[in-house]
Amino acid sequence: MKSIRIAMIVILSIAAILISIILSLALGARAIPFEEVISTLWSYDWFGPGLGHTSNLNQLVVAERIPRTIFAMIAGGALGVAGALMQSLTRNPIADPSILGVNTGASLSVVIGISFFQIGNPSQYIWFSIVGAGLTAAFVYSIGSMGPSGSTPIKLTLAGTAVSAALSSIVSAIVLPRTEVMNQFRFWQVGSVSGATFTGILAVLPFIVVGLVIAFGLIHSLDVIALGEDMATGLGTKVGLIKGGAAFAGIVLCGAVTALAGPVGFVGLMVPHVVRMIFGSSQKYLIPLSLVGGGLVLTLSDVLGRLLAKPGEVEAGIITAFVGAPILIYVASKAKVTNL
């Protein structure tokens, strides 16, 4: 029975991913027939010039949507896994990477890079983003660990919220007096996958792969820690090392995505919580399904943004906020647990 359930989950996940990809390639300011989407994908030279010079307009439109679709699926999955890791670390069922100031720290670091170091492309953003995210997360954790009781979900949440608010103010203070920085930063800060290119994807992909490998490698250990840190220690689990590795993976995943897409919110908050409500708290379901669910949410949000404002578009980060907030409120109101 268990193997049948896993097989069904895998089949449904693959089907949902394929449908989302086709919808992303077909829908937008210009709708492309399903047959032309398939023929374009079939004739696309993935290791060469793409479509070459003999393509019609519909094929060119599909080709332009390919990198943003790939990145939306990758970025959403990375944010979903980062959210699952942070919720497990803080034992807070409605936490996400922003609980440790990751998004805001990455944003501030990128703003500093734009303002004072004249950076201007994702391959430069990524180093600033990850360093800023890591330093901020470490600072928040240090504050949240003060006192005799050490780090607790409530203390980490309060520390993360306070630090995020302070850093947001610093971002505004740096950006507002600089018109050229504001023009460059204001589109990035909304959160969008529309500017994705294969060059940008290849720049962030190694970081995302490293983060995902670490996350999947920690699945069993995180399940053991969920039984209680004292019991996990008694079973031979190196709790500090595992938690540090999970935090590192979450920071790298969120920082890499933020570098290219900007601070996309609610994906890492909403997806793992919904997965947990349906499939339970076991990491062997939570992390893989958060990967799939995050990719689906961000990809479909991008599609919805294109349909709502065509011939223009609404950035995916705005859609995830509008869709994620009411869903999160509903799920949180139905939740019966106060911690994990």
The SS-based structural class is mainly alpha
Range of strand content:
under 5%
Q: Number of helical runs?
A: 14
Largest sheet: none
Task: Please provide a written account of the structure.
The model has no long low-confidence stretch (mean pLDDT 85). The chain starts with a helix and ends in a 6-residue tail after the last helix. It is built from 14 helices and no strands. The protein is globular and about 65 Å long. Helices cover 75% and strands 0% of the residues. The longest helix is centred in the N-terminal third of the chain and has 34 residues, at 57-90. It has 340 residues and is mainly alpha-helical.
Please give a quick description of this structure.
The protein has 340 residues and is mainly α. It has 14 helices and no strands.
List keywords for this structure.
mainly alpha; globular; 340 residues
Topology of this protein?
Layout: H1 2-26, H2 34-43, H3 57-90, H4 102-116, H5 122-144, H6 153-175, H7 179-190, H8 198-217, H9 219-225, H10 229-234, H11 239-261, H12 267-279, H13 283-308, H14 316-334
